[in-house]
Automatic annotation (TrEMBL), chain A:
UniProt cross-references to PROSITE patterns, sorted A to Z: ABC_TM1 (PS50928)
Family: Belongs to the binding-protein-dependent transport system permease family.
Cellular localization per UniProt: Cell membrane
PANTHER family: D,D-DIPEPTIDE TRANSPORT SYSTEM PERMEASE PROTEIN DDPC-RELATED (PTHR43386:SF1), OLIGOPEPTIDE TRANSPORT SYSTEM PERMEASE PROTEIN APPC (PTHR43386)
InterPro entries: BP-dependent_transpt_permease, MetI-like, MetI-like_sf, OppC_N
The ABC transmembrane type-1 domain, residue ranges: 77-266
Keyword list, A-Z: Cell membrane, Membrane, Peptide transport, Protein transport, Transmembrane, Transmembrane helix, Transport
Membrane topology: Multi-pass membrane protein
Transmembrane segments: 6-31, 79-106, 126-152, 206-224, 244-265
Gene3D superfamilies the record matches: MetI-like
Protein name, UniProt field: ABC transporter permease subunit
Organism: Hoeflea alexandrii
From TrEMBL, chain C:
The protein's name: ABC transporter substrate-binding protein
The keyword Signal is assigned to this record: yes
Domain Solute-binding protein family: 73-440
Transmembrane segments: none
Subcellular location: Periplasm
Family statement drawn from the similarity comment of this UniProt entry: Belongs to the bacterial solute-binding protein 5 family.
SUPFAM superfamilies assigned to the protein according to its UniProt record, in alphabetical order: Periplasmic binding protein-like II
Keywords: Signal
Signal listed as a keyword: yes
Signal sequence, start to end: 1-27
Length: 277, 341, 531
């Protein structure tokens, strides 16, 4: 663990990733202290200062009802991170369990579970999430649900492939010989060997969940105002291009920075943990 | 070629099962969207009697399993029902809008392969050097923003501040192209109108590039990773020690084995692109399936929702079968290991 | 392999190079405009603004609104007379459909029958019309079930279709009339209009061209071709106009965008007088079932800020200050200088008298997803009512879902924001559908108002025989609606269109040429296109 961190900090690219992600997390956690206008995360209107280009004290400009874009972006990071964490916290255990069971048990169980996975994988992710969001009221909780529904199959695929390889390995066969239960073999013997791959994918996915959630918001199927949300900001701002460019460009860059940071770390982790395996 | 045919048959059968699963999934989702589709379709001033008639005509009062039965029977006849939104058969609507989306996604796919693979090859060849780091950084950036952000940035830069490309649409108004395939790049050539072809190509560059950017990054990263792995293999080291030109080693010995995993990912990326096309089409006013898809979901247009998702999924499965066959053709080991279980 | 890949990318780049050579689009005589919604070509289904533009150009009606004045003038009809329940129209005998068939009384009868039988779109305007009969080839009589003063105005919404052509193109359906030609008429037109359909793709664009045989003739400077495109993004329209590739933008561009275009030399066209922006309160749901709570919210609304939000330039705005329930210019309206203003003290007093306490409820403020400016009004109200100590939540609803939810009072949000206009220009078509107790629960009546006095004045307004009688009824109605406050009367609406300098549209720029009916200003034959 320590060694992994040391390698991460030694490489300039992954160091950049650590810095970017730290900035994002710190802005989200300490938004109350950093934001010049914390109350602008909610329903505040200030028509004396609306649609202002970046200028002091509004370093990222103001939106169409006069709220500080910089403050809103900080609070939007909070929403994005919560969404990413919750989605992965639900999707990963489900996906991993199904993958382990299908990979280890084989036979009809495998066939049914993997075809089910294929069904979810063969609807383009965004289209599936859109269909689900069309059913539900657009709220943060439902947004998470929709993204979760399309996310678990990727972990099933990943773990399934590893499990199929591992189950022929000596230590698994040995455990079978001494009569260990199936649950024991799946969760105590095989699962630990999948962990590095799962962690790498989770780091990468943290970025992609933020990305897909912002895409949903972009289509109007995301978090509701006045809650600040990066995807909705880009979508709403895009109507005012090119004149009020700050409404779109800053939230767009904010998405880019967060996703880029997680990708840099995930990439480095893949190299490190992959090499150790 | 017999094993290949067998592989094809097997993949087609699996895809059919998956497609049936997709239809059930999406059918169930479409039926639980809140709101009465009949009322929405008939508009605000409809009478209770008109709504009841339409509900009966749509079998909405039956059990969902019975409804699904009606649906399957219709699909078997090639009928996806009538859209409540456009009052036209769903198949006609999809036939009208799908080609534009497919054209966009296919051109983006070509860009992904045509730009992403060479970038990956260069990156691997110069691994560890500045060029490699640049390419890695750029391709990671490409993956790191949603395609709608790229679309907005590209439009702002290259259609507004520097008006090099058109801002919207598929072709300029002055060209009248009769639709044969629905693919403008093909239809213009069929008419022998080279200027119209150029105009259509000029229109597709920005939206396709916005759509392809994340795929280009993905393809470059993957190709690089796979080639770096291959570079460590003994036969490459041998070729190097014999003094083969680096270019020849890269293009011939290292690239070919790396192509197979890259192709698999390209197949998967195609699915993402079919979805992301929804975002890009909105910004470039591209008259594809996206506006239709979003509109029918919001309007709870049952037949159209099910039809659209089904067609998109079928397209995706088809592409993956083609990719699988390509891989099998490229790799004899896979080709011959497909024995019936 | 790589070589061919390289070739491919080179080929792709070459084709783009080749294409960047200027391909200047020939703009001679082409009018390019856009609308947000999908265009519906069937006269029996058409209802919204985009549809109206199509109807007013490819079809004709018996009468037209007088320009710059109240009342109606003959069009397909030469003259008419009526006595409350029976109207007789004498038709012109020189009018031909684009098919070449002559327009006769039979076609008028068929058009009404078709509208009523299909029961869609604006057919409810003809609910009081019992039947139409052809007396002879050029005379048609309408019989009403009861007196209906706005009847002649409602004929503006009865496009006359070509019976013979439709009968020859009936699609699948049950009964003698099958589908009434619905499949045929959604894709093409069968009218007498100054323009005829070249192509129609409901999601992309409708292309129309001059009808050389139009009975009034189409002036030469009028556009030869009109391309009406649907669903363009605001940023796209803004850029297209700036680059000289678009002529008239839809009214749904945000005010900031119109402002930017005007600053770059675009002209600003306006159309006004038939509608308003309303915030409708669900009077069946606590706390809005108490008139004092409603009054509190009406008084606390910041009317001045709302007007400021929709200002386009110093002189043009998307709305004028509201004076009451009836827009200025209609029967019964209050004087234009008697504007509503915010009164927070009065609001607090009303709230204190309301039987519900602010801590006991959360107000749902909805906005229609398709109309982005409503989000800002929602935020404005949220901030305004927070000053009263009232909590609220904002709810975004796609139009279709909204129209469905309002059919039940318990699903209808507390506050619904709506732009409503008189579809025939007559106050009856604005107010009856919103406030009569029998019309409750449609998209325009989420108040669920049930008030005997309101019902009485609405009936009086539509049956009064003289203009003075109607004026009196609507003035009384206005007073009553202010007293019971079912609605926050936001502002009187004005549609604002950004347009390129190469078009002249007198009906949208010269008040003496204005029609006083939404969409009629887009009569292409009265426009001029340079070059």
């Amino acid at each position: 663990m320590k060694r992994t961190l040391a390698i991460l900090l030694a490489n300039p690219l992954s160091l950049l990733g650590v810095v970017l992600v730290s900035v994002v997390i710190l802005s989200a956690v300490f938004a109350d202290f950093i934001a010049p206008f914390p109350e602008h995360s909610g329903a505040v209107v200030d028509f004396a200062n609306f649609n202002k280009p970046p200028e002091w004290p509004y370093i990222f400009g103001t939106d169409l009802v006069g709220r500080d874009m910089f403050s809103r972006i900080l609070y939007a990071y909070r929403i994005s991170l919560i969404l990413g964490i919750v989605v992965l916290a639900i999707a990963v255990p489900i996906g991993v369990t199904i993958g382990l069971v299908a990979g280890y048990l084989g036979g009809w169980t495998e066939y049914l579970l993997m075809r089910l996975t294929d069904v979810f994988l063969s609807v383009p992710p965004l289209v599936l999430a859109m269909s689900i969001m069309g059913v539900l009221q657009p709220t943060l909780a439902n947004g998470m649900l929709a993204v979760t529904a399309m996310w678990w199959p990727w972990y099933t695929r990943l773990v399934y492939n590893i499990t199929r390889g591992e189950k022929e390995e000596g230590y698994v066969l040995a455990a079978e010989v001494i009569g260990a239960s199936k649950a024991h073999i799946i969760f105590r013997e095989i699962l630990p060997n999948c962990v590095p791959a799962i962690i790498t994918k989770m780091t990468l996915d943290m970025g992609f969940v933020i990305l897909i959630a912002s895409s949903l918001s972009f289509l109007g199927l995301g978090v509701q105002p006045p809650t600040p949300d990066l995807g909705s900001m880009v979508a709403d701002g895009a109507k005012y291009l090119p004149d009020s460019w700050w409404l779109t460009i800053f939230p767009g860059l904010a998405i880019l920075i967060a996703v880029f940071g997680f990708n840099l770390i995930g990439d480095a982790l893949r190299d490190i943990l992959g090499a150790e395996q | 070629m017999i094993p290949l045919a067998r592989l094809l048959a097997k993949r087609l059968a699996t895809s059919l099962i998956v497609l049936i699963g997709v239809s059930m999934l999406i059918f169930a989702i479409a039926r639980i969207i809140p709101g009465d589709p009949a009322r929405i379709a008939l508009g605000p001033n409809a009478t209770a009697e008109q709504i009841a008639d339409l509900r009966a005509a749509l079998h909405l009062n039956d059990h969902i399993v019975v409804q699904y039965g009606h649906f399957v029977a219709d699909v078997a006849r090639g009928d996806l029902g009538v859209s409540l939104y456009t009052n036209r058969p769903v198949t006609a609507d999809i036939a009208l809008y799908l080609p534009a989306t497919l054209e966009l996604v296919l051109v983006a796919g070509l860009m992904m392969v045509g730009i992403g693979l060479p970038l990956g090859i260069w990156s691997a060849r110069w691994r560890g050097r500045a060029a490699d780091n640049m390419i890695r950084l750029v391709s990671l950036l490409g993956v790191s923003a949603p395609s709608f952000v790229w679309a907005v940035i590209l439009m702002l830069l290259f259609a507004f501040y520097l008006p090099l490309f058109p801002i919207a649409g598929r072709i300029s108004d002055s060209y009248a192209i009769s639709s044969v395939t629905g693919f403008l790049l093909i239809d213009t050539l069929l008419q022998g109108d080279v200027r119209a072809f150029g105009n259509a190509a000029w229109h597709i560059v920005l939206p396709a590039f916005a759509l392809a950017l994340s795929g280009i990054g993905q393809a470059a990263r993957l190709t690089r990773a796979n080639m770096v792995e291959t570079y460590d293999k003994p036969y490459i080291e041998m070729a190097q020690s014999y003094g083969f030109p680096a270019r020849r080693i890269a293009n011939h010995y290292a690239f070919r084995p790396s192509l197979i995993p890259s192709l698999t990912i390209i197949g998967l990326d195609f699915a993402a692109m079919l979805g992301n096309a929804f975002l890009v089409e909105a910004i470039f006013a591209w008259p594809g399936l996206s506006r239709y898809g979003v509109a029918v979901i919001l309007r709870k247009d049952l037949n159209a929702i099910v039809g659209t998702v089904l067609i998109i999924s079928a397209t995706f499965l088809l592409v993956n079968i083609i990719v699988d066959l390509l891989i099998a053709l490229l790799n004899p080991r896979i080709r011959y290991s497909q024995r019936p279980a | 392999m790589t070589k061919s890949l390289k070739l491919l990318s080179i080929a792709a780049m070459a084709s783009t190079m080749l294409a960047t050579a200027p391909l200047s689009a020939q703009a001679g005589g082409v009018l390019r405009l856009d609308e947000v919604a999908v265009g519906e070509l069937d006269p029996a289904i058409a209802s919204d603004y985009a549809d109206s533009i199509l109807m007013f150009n490819v079809y004709d009606t018996l009468v037209l609104p007088a320009q710059g004045a109240p009342g109606h003038v003959p069009h397909l009809a030469e003259s008419w007379e009526g006595d409350g329940t029976s109207y007789t129209f004498k038709l012109r005998d020189d009018v031909k459909f684009v098919s070449g068939n002559a327009m006769t009384a039979e076609d008028v009868v068929f058009s009404l029958d078709r509208m009523k039988a299909m029961g869609k779109g604006l057919s409810y305007l003809f609910a009081n019309v019992e039947k139409a009969e052809a007396v002879d080839a050029s005379t048609v009589t309408f019989t009403l079930t009861k007196p209906y003063a706005p009847f002649v105005a409602s004929l503006l919404r009865l496009p006359i279709v070509d019976k013979q052509t439709v009968m020859a193109n009936l699609g699948e359906g049950e009964g003698e009339m099958k589908d009434w030609g619905a499949a045929y008429l959604t894709s093409t037109s069968a009218g007498t209009g100054a323009y005829r359909i070249v192509s129609h793709n409901p999601q992309e664009e409708t292309v129309m061209e001059k009808n050389p045989d139009y009975f009034l003739g189409v002036p030469a400077p009028a556009p030869d071709t009109a391309r009406l495109r649907y669903g363009l993004e605001a940023a796209t329209v803004r850029t297209l106009i700036a680059q000289g590739e678009h002529d008239i933008a839809s009214q749904w561009l945000p005010p900031e965008v119109i402002k930017a275009l005007a600053a770059n030399g675009a002209q600003v066209l306006t159309e006004s007088g038939t509608g308003a922006f309303y915030v409708k309160m669900n009077t069946t749901k606590p706390p809005l079932d108490d008139v004092n709570c409603r009054m509190a919210f009406a008084k606390a609304f910041d009317y001045g800020a709302a007007i400021k939000m929709i200002a386009v330039t110093d002189t043009v705005s998307q709305g004028a200050a509201s004076t009451g329930a009836v827009p200025v210019g209609m029967f019964g309206a209050n004087p234009a200088d008697q504007v509503l203003t915010r009164d927070l003290e009065a609001a607090k007093q009303h709230l204190a008298e309301c039987k519900y306490k602010p801590e006991d409820f959360t107000l749902e403020i909805s906005w229609i997803a398709e109309v982005p400016v409503e989000e800002r009004f929602a935020l404005l109200m949220q901030a305004n009512y927070a000053e009263l100590g009232v909590k609220s939540e904002i709810k975004k609803l796609p139009w279709a879902l909204f129209a469905e939810q309002v059919s039940k009072p318990e699903n209808t949000p507390h506050l619904s924001q709506l732009f409503v206009n008189a579809v025939t220009g007559d106050p009856d078509t604005l107010l009856y559908g919103m406030y009569h107790s029998s019309a409750a629960g449609t998209w325009q009546s989420p108040e669920y108002l049930n008030d005997a006095e309101v019902d009485k004045q609405l009936e009086a307004g539509r049956t009064a025989a003289t203009p003075e009688g109607r004026e009196g009824a609507y003035a009384a109605l206005n007073a009553r609606l202010m007293e019971i406050a079912p609605t926050i009367y936001g502002y009187d609406r004005q549609s604002v269109f950004a347009a390129s300098a190469r078009v002249k549209v007198p009906a949208l720029s010269d008040p003496s040429k204005a029609f006083g009916l939404d969409g009629m200003g887009f009569t292409f034959r009265l426009m001029e296109v340079a070059d």
